[in-house]
């Protein structure tokens, strides 16, 4: 009987030791791997920290996770705690399982979102369960129905979303501006390369118009790095209202 009791005690001790060892190994693994580095460099266009109800919110930032990204969670909630207007999670796709990446997304702000102060909460969790939280203030404004509207017609020849360095790119968009167009800006942005170039149009054929088809062929600069781009197309009217629409997934190559 004593032998049986001794044997059982020995087994329990071994199991307990293995559990402690496993927990210790897990703790050591977490301590040896840094928590994710997560920060949004842009909350809203040019980090304006503003959004319009019924429009989308631009978010962009570099992420580093030595433990590899397992998930990303984004919420936007009223500062008074009354309502969460956006709740978005990323658990698969281009951000998951990687060590370094640039987060770039556009989240829709509901049309019924009340104007006011909000908080953006951005959480990156790695495969070890370690999380880093980044927060930012955000002001949601009511949609001004008299602000300019932009509708892309063609981005690249035949809407191919392609262009060649040193050559011209076909670009068409319909613009409606009840308060008359004051300025048009087209920004080409390569996030991975940290490159941007802005074309500004204040031509007579656009300025002062309330409805016009934008039809231009901006020449891609020779110093533009090859890669994937997005375009920020901004129209400012005579009353000072601005609207920006974005075209994504534009491939610019050397030839």
From TrEMBL:
PROSITE patterns assigned: PROKAR_LIPOPROTEIN (PS51257)
InterPro entries given in the database record: DUF4625
Keyword terms of this UniProt record: Signal
Signal peptide: 1-24
Name of the protein: DUF4625 domain-containing protein
The organism's taxonomic lineage, starting at the top: Bacteria, Pseudomonadati, Bacteroidota, Bacteroidia, Bacteroidales
